[in-house]
Write a structure and sequence with these properties.
The chain is mainly α and about 120 residues long. Helix content is about 65%, strand content about 10%. It has a three-stranded antiparallel β-sheet with strand order 1-3-2.
Length: about 120
């Protein structure tokens, strides 16, 4: 990858959401703020360990807020930051593109895999 591509805004956005579950988490938090257990229910395929790791990374990148309420047991709520909401909005355009053109891209990818195998 050239230096220009590494500094490209699109590449930066992709690095922010790289990881199998980050897009799913951002989409869920785009609907409403959620507690850990509700996120886990909304994305049943993700393990608790992976959800915690992905949330920590999203928080470190400034995309997710983690709010702890002083209760017993402690209540923790995750929500999107302004930056996370903006990324979610931008990802919506990619989702729309994928819905419109995804069949063609998927078919070509399957053909490449079949040819290689």
């Amino acid at each position: 990858m050239t230096n220009t591509m590494e500094n490209c805004g699109f590449a930066t956005a992709l690095r922010a959401i790289e990881g199998k579950w980050k897009v799913d988490i951002l989409c869920e938090l785009g609907k409403a703020a959620r507690r850990f257990g509700r996120l886990r229910q909304a994305i049943p395929e993700i393990s608790e360990k992976m959800l915690a790791q992905q949330l920590r990374e999203l928080e470190a990148d400034g995309l997710v807020n983690r709010t702890t309420y002083p209760e017993t047991p402690p209540k923790v709520v995750y929500s999107l930051t302004k930056r996370g909401a903006a990324l979610n909005l931008a990802a919506g355009a990619l989702c729309q593109w994928g819905e419109e053109f995804g069949d063609t891209v998927d078919a070509r990818a399957e053909a490449r895999v079949a040819a290689a195998g």
